[in-house]
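Exercise 7. Given the components listed, write out the predicted structure of the assembled complex. Treat all entries as one system.
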Amino acid sequence: KQEVTQIPAALSVPEGENLVLNCSFTDSAIYNLQWFRQDPGKGLTSLLLIQSSQREQTSGRLNASLDKSSGRSTLYIAASQPGDSATYLCAVNTGNQFYFGTGTSLTVIP
Amino acid sequence: DAGITQSPRHKVTETGTPVTLRCHQTENHRYMYWYRQDPGHGLRLIHYSYGVKDTDKGEVSDGYSVSRSKTEDFLLTLESATSSQTSVYFCAIKANADTGELFFGEGSRLTVL
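Answer.
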């Protein structure tokens, strides 16, 4: 069974810092990997989707990379802002099913 | 946004009562999912559907049933709710496009007293 781990579970940084969130998975046979953002009491918002054949995807200040062979993905957030405070989750797609990490709770301090 | 609506958004019920949560989509996607989210456990798959009348179990399906009689609606039923089913329930759809991107509804918060 696919296991997805996100480290750290929580992260607090001052505004303006660049930061990296980590996601690891145990089975490299994936179709894609997706990063989500979740605000308290809300649903999950898709941030970036990386197909298994891709190495990275960028959207604004966000950059996600994928190393399928080592079972790792990173989400890089540049010049963090207080509005980036949220929980970030990664999910791997193995075909018909998706497996989620438990998330990293990010706090950006003004 | 994949046009996903969940109802009800909030519900409080008593142990032993039946509960049905509804997920409605407007874009004709084939795959629909029900997850529950609990502190310390993350998102766990309850059931999913890959077409009308086609469903399969996820890792935490005990105590839950689903039905999909129309493409746009995926219902999750708790036949006899228990306190352990207090949770936030999310519906998701996998986009039909080649990307296979997953989109979520806003969630349904269920409290079983």
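Discussion: Chain A touches chain B at residues 31-32, 34, 36, 41-46, 49, 51, 89, 91, 93, 96-98, 100-103 (CB under 8 Å). Residues 6 and 102 of chain A are 6 Å apart (CA to CA).
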